[in-house]
Amino acid sequence: MEIVGAVHGHSRYSDGRGTVEEIRDAAADAGLDFLILTDHDTLAPLTDIGEGFYRNTLVLFGCEVSPPTNHLLVFGAVSCPDRSRRPQEYLDDARGQGALTFLAHPHDRGVPLAHIPSYRWDAWPIEGYTGLEVWNHLSDWSGHLKGLGSAVRALRRPAHALHGPEAETLRLWDEMGRTRPVAGIAGLDVHDVQIGRPPFAAHIFRYPYAMRTLLCYVDLPAWGGDPEAAKADLLGAIAHGRLHFANRELGDARGLGFFGLRPGAPPATMGDEVPAGEVQELRLTSPLAADLRILKDGTAIGGTSGRELALPPAGPGVYRAELRLRRDGRSLPWAFTNPIYLR
Ligand SMILES: [Zn+2]
Ligand SMILES: [Zn+2]
What is the pLDDT of residues 176-217, one digit of tens each? Predict the structure, then answer.
């Protein structure tokens, strides 16, 4: 089954404007199945509030290790690793706790318009991370502001102002996938930043709005019931890369499928590593008519407009799909699958 949720959010435990209670309400109101909050350098809500189902939303607390650069999202730890250590050390600390680790907004541009520096990942080489935050709503939105006019337009319709994952991040993802599976997620990085004072205040993504934008759609064998079991199932599926992510503001991506069809065996799906010779056909299906592309090692091997694309694979490689929607006469980035790895 498929569940949908939001990852990477900040509350008053760090620099967000909302309380955890307000944010989980926003997630539940948006019909999300899960929410993973990641305050900077603290896991205090884990003990203050506790994880579990709130209405129908599983609310989990991760953290974001946040030195000036090299932010690391950590899901499933009991103590947030120390940001004053070297990146490989705080990553290893998280791994030692059995937690998932994602390099956050690895090619962040900063906010050139406001002279805010880049929060990119620059501690290379780095080993042992679960995956990449391939698409970060806040980085995408703020990194492309060009002036007052574009800022006003982007504030009015933030989800239409997104440019999609950074090309460099996609390149890194495709390249890393050649040696091992690397899970990709999309994060909101929502803070509800207020600029100015009422009645002239502007907000960069209020929580209820954000919960309807960049979401992760995760495939699981079962869902619900015991919160501990649900947490283990969810984090296991995310670690495996069994998910796609999409900008729901443009259209709900529930039901999107990406499979490698194998005669006499169950289809391979996102996150799977299988022998290349076993897969006869790659099949992408979309719940909405869209521009569909299947890529091998970062290069498109075929595309169409519609709801289905089927292609034979072209030998071993990292295969993933990208979908764009046309809105207001423009083609906008919409949904991205995790790869299927043909070896
Ligand atoms: Zn960050
Ligand atoms: Zn953040």
Answer: 999 999 999 999 999 998 888 888 888 888 999 999 999 999
Question: Which residues does 76 contact at the CB level (< 8 Å), separation at least 6?
Answer: 60, 62, 97, 98, 99, 100, 231, 235
In the structure, what pLDDT confidence band is assigned to residue 151 with cuts at 50, 70 and 90? Answer: confident
| Residues 20 and 128 both lie in one domain | yes
Whether residues 280 and 192 share a domain: the answer is no
Q: Cα(18) to centroid of ligand 1, in Å?
A: 17
3 state SS for 29-43: HCCCCEEEEEEECCC
If you measure from the C-alpha of residue 113 to the centroid of ligand 2, how many angstroms do you get, rounded to a whole number?
Answer: 19
Q: Are residues 188 and 276 in the same domain?
A: no
Whether residue 152 sits in one domain with residue 95? yes
Which ligand has the shortest distance to the CA of 66? Answer: 1
Its pTM stands at 0.97
